[in-house]
């Protein structure tokens, strides 16, 4: 990732974080994407606690595309959230475009039962 691209993402990320925050009833679904993996976590910003976290390394799925893996991560996160009684979240794409793996993770979470 070039310096300009990473600076742009961080600037967008800071802008997004000034507008949204998570609570205990409606936590923030934060997404981090690396070249090899995708991570998602539900965060209560009022207490500064992570409620649920899932990554592509923590689930057992092989031989699939990155987009399919991201969708599975979203579904797994939704299942864990529903077990805790969480049905609504605020989506934080962390400055990434809503496209590809980020979109697939969001759609997987919606299929799993979360409402954005």
TrEMBL record:
MF annotations from Gene Ontology: 5S rRNA binding; structural constituent of ribosome
Protein family according to the UniProt entry: Belongs to the universal ribosomal protein uL18 family.
SUPFAM superfamilies xref list: Translational machinery components
Subunit structure: Part of the 50S ribosomal subunit; part of the 5S rRNA/L5/L18/L25 subcomplex. Contacts the 5S and 23S rRNAs.
Listed name of the protein: Large ribosomal subunit protein uL18
HAMAP family registered for this protein in UniProt: Ribosomal_uL18_B
UniProt KW keywords: Ribonucleoprotein, Ribosomal protein, RNA-binding, rRNA-binding
Species annotation: Adhaeribacter swui
GO BP terms: translation
InterPro entries attached to this UniProt entry: Ribosomal_L18, Ribosomal_uL18_bac-type, Ribosomal_uL18_bac/plant/anim
GO cellular component: cytosolic large ribosomal subunit
Pfam families: Ribosomal_L18p
Gene designation per UniProt: rplR
Function recorded in the entry: This is one of the proteins that bind and probably mediate the attachment of the 5S RNA into the large ribosomal subunit, where it forms part of the central protuberance.
